[in-house]
Structures are given as structure tokens and as C-alpha cells.
Amino acid sequence: MQNTIKPNKRLLSLDVFRGATVAAMILVNNPGDWGHIYAPLEHSEWNGCTPTDLIFPFFLFIVGVSIVFALDAKKKILENHLSLTRIILKRTVILFCLGLLMSLQPYFDFATVRIPGVLQRIALVYLASALIFLYAIPQNIFKIFIVLLSSYWLMMILIPVPGFGAANLEMESNLGAWLDRTLLTENHLWILSKTWDPEGILGTLPSIASGLFGVMMGSILRTESRTADNKVAWLFAFGFIAFLLGLTWGLFFPINKSLWTSSFVLYSGGLASMGLALCYWLIDVKGFTKFTKPFVIYGVNAITVYFVSGIVARSMNLLKTTLNGQEVSWKNFLYEQFFTPYFSPNNASVAWAISFVLIWYIILWAMFKRNIVIKV
């Protein structure tokens, strides 16, 4: 008998994949000491890709898959898509405003607020991917995906950069960095650089392609005529092909998370597709579910825990107390009292991050037990 799974059934594997991704996001965002981090838990300085660099594109891929499962049935039932469009626009505004709120905290200085950001990019990718899925036929979604990747590549390697000359892919003198400084000014960019932003304007185009990759793979999972084994095979095949194409393209358009290069989209999307294929086969097809609950608990409130944990982390850095006669933040106080005396510097840093993830798991577990799901 062929394995079949009803397309309307909620995919446990998708919740697990989402939960694992957001837990990893919180882990890498909250080391005890930014000066002592294991290499896999850091972003690449520029070209190249670490495991940490894969977390954000994995999440955008998941956004794309989720769009299919959230909108597909409604899209087929409703002839008029205006009501769905209003829902998409509302969610986009909420996500974008939450991102701005994180940037404004704690001083709420609108003159220097960072306008780009993680939640802001998620909002824009969600908006574009959802509207494309809603209004475009499947064949055109793939064409849009190709156009986004190829046009971004051509812009980055062909268009001269005002004030710098020929097109280039350097940190401060590439076309994207120039556009960010021109449109947003240095006051509204990433505080650690002020001259470019890893979630900048031009890089949003290929990041939309990351969302569309998820839409295309989600459409495979939603197809009723396919068997479960067939879905696994196609997700893995498309993922492996994209992975190889990303590596090949990366030889002359380097894999770079900060620029969100086209090669990075294919490389990370391919790995995400193969990862979801594995989760789907293990969890939804073979029924190995005993290990899934912690990830599901993280997955059902993913945006909420990302937002609130970020606010809490910043607050802990701002609130002050006294340690050995000196004023220190609450974070440093706890870190110096309970972690640095007992671990090496790198281990203390990662132990703090793991503790942060576990504390949020306890909070999310309590919410899960009470069926509290905050939808954004």
C-alpha cells in the first residue's frame, strides 16, 4: 500500500522544523559573551556560510511553506481574494511594526531607529510571497523566483556604484550598501556598521526568493495526488539540485548571508528543503514523534517568543545593579555569578545561551499547556 497523508492535515514536521529554527535563532542571538563564541555559532564575517547563517533563510523558507498551508484551501474556495489580501496586509503591518518596536526599545528615538531588521524582512517576504501565491499560477511563481535571483545578480555585478566606480561585492561599497545609505541615511542602519545593513533594501529581493522556494516546496506537500514517498523524493531532489547550483553559482557570485546573494538563496533553500523532507519522512510518514514536543512548543509561538525574548534580553542589558563595587547590567551580574566561575570562557558563553533557550521553553510549555497561542 502506498503511503498517503491528507493534504489538509496539519504537518507536525513543519511545526517541529519551525520550532527548531526559532530555538536556534534565540540560541545564537544570546551568547553570554560576544567575545567568546564557538565558530559555528557565529555569522560569517563576509563570504562563506556557517550553521548560524542558515537559520534566517530556513525561517523564510518555512514562512513560504506555511503560506501554502494557510491560504491554499481558502484560495480555492473564495473567488474574490480581497478578504485574504486584507488579512495578508494586516499581518505584514503587525510584523513590521513589531520589528520597529524592537529597534526603538528602550529609548524610542525615532531619529536614529534602525528601519531594516529581522522582523521587518520577515514581514516583507511574507507580503510578497503570500500575494504571489494568491494571484500567480504555479508556473509563474517559478518564473518570478528565477527573475528575482538573476536580476539581483546582474544588478550587483553590472551596475556601477556612485562614488565608488565599478560594481563590486565589498562590504561598504556594493550597490546595496550605497542604496541603504542613500535612502535610509546612516542614522537608520545597523548600529554596528552605520554604512550598510544585513537586512537592507536591495537584499530584500533575493530574500523574497527564499520565501518563494518555500512556497514551491509547500505546494508539493499540499498536492493530494502525490503519495507521501513521492513528496519526500521531490523535496529532497529539488533541495539537492538547488544546493549544488548554489555551490556552483557561489564560485563567481559568492555565498554571502549579509548580501543574501542568489547563490546563498539556492544553497540555504536546498538545505532547508532536504531538512524538511527528512523531518516529514521521519515524523509524518514514519510516525517517529516522541522527540517532537519541545520543538512543537517552540514552533506554535515562534514569532512571539522571538519578539519577547529580544525585548527581555535588551532589558537585562539596560537594568543595572552592583557587583564588586561596580555598576553592571543584570545580565552581566547573573553571568559573572553563575556561569563564568564554573566554565571556560567559550563554554560559559554557550551555557548562558542554552539556559536562555531552556527558560523560554518553560514559559512556552506553560502557555502550551493552557492552549495559549498568540498568532501574529
TrEMBL record:
Keyword set includes Methyltransferase: no
Q: Where are the transmembrane segments?
A: 54-71, 92-112, 118-137, 144-165, 200-221, 233-252, 264-283, 295-313, 349-368
Keywords, sorted A to Z: Membrane, Transmembrane, Transmembrane helix
Transmembrane helix as a keyword?
Answer: yes
User: What organism does the UniProt record list as the source?
Assistant: Pedobacter segetis
Protein name, per record: DUF5009 domain-containing protein
